[in-house]
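Long-time lurker, first post.

We've been arguing in lab meeting about whether LARABZUK would sit comfortably in this protein at all. Half the group thinks yes, half thinks no, and nobody has a model to point at. So I'm putting the question to the forum: if I give you the sequence and the SMILES, can you give me back a predicted structure of the complex? Inputs are below. Any interpretation is welcome too.
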Amino acid sequence: MFLDSIVGRVDERVKALRTQAERLEKVAASMTPVRSLAQALSASPDRVSIIAECKQKSPSKGWLTHHYDPQALARQYQEDGASAISVLTEPYFFAGDLEHLKAVKASVDLPVLRKDFVRDPLQLVEARAAGADAALLIVRIVDDVELHDLYQAAAALNLEVLVEIHSPSEAERALKLNPRIIGVNNRDLDSFETRLSFSEEMAHVIPADVIRVSESGIQSVEDLHRIQDWGYQAALVGESLVKGSGLLRGYQD
Ligand SMILES: O=C(O)c1ccccc1NCC(=O)[C@H](O)[C@H](O)COP(=O)(O)O
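Top reply:
Settle the argument with this. Predicted structure of the protein with LARABZUK, as tokens:
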């Protein structure tokens, strides 16, 4: 299964990272205060806030672009009205790099989210040291104890968390954390099946005081209106923006 292979790669990366733990902890501790993702996503209550994603390649779609300049892309997203930027840092399946996140952070004023497959607190230290303001935690790839420990580690680093779920039982597990932001991924990360209406089905399991983010497969202004009607405050959009759909500009008009 895809998730097993990605998790195997993550665990190898974490092992290699251990030698740098002390240095990363020092750098993370010296970072400036975070730009709040929760605040950015709550700033325009009448419309859906967009977390615009920088990703060059995806397991489901292959290469999305051959000319990939995450810095320029993020600047364009900011100009077009994005509320936050997500940067893929996973190298093997998404051609991501932590250097992309550093470059993006230096070139926009928006909160920057590390989009990776986080299984160890050291990845959160690494994210903070690179300048991330927030990180994704995918409930499906960790157990309850690991999830709790990762959430606490993020809080200690002043990193905000987007807690990602893909089933009612994962929602139940996520809610034990009392999270501020929950993302419903419309994509099944093993089969890659993507269905926007999944967000509609899941909306009722997320309490009203939690910021709801609909993730994946969002292509049009109509999709944004739909998720707003279902009670979502934000959308995470990758492929359609990277491919130049103009969705952000279209939504501003
Ligand atoms: O994007 C994929 O193909 C993918 C496959 C397996 C695990 C994760 C994957 N993507 C991560 C994401 O959640 C998306 O990059 C993000 O939600 C944006 O989705 P999209 O707008 O459909 O590019």
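For your lab meeting: Residues 53, 55, 58-61, 185, 187, 189, 192, 215-218, 236-239 surround LARABZUK (CB under 6 Å). The domain at 2-252 is CATH 3.20.20.70 (TIM Barrel). Whichever side wins, do check it experimentally.
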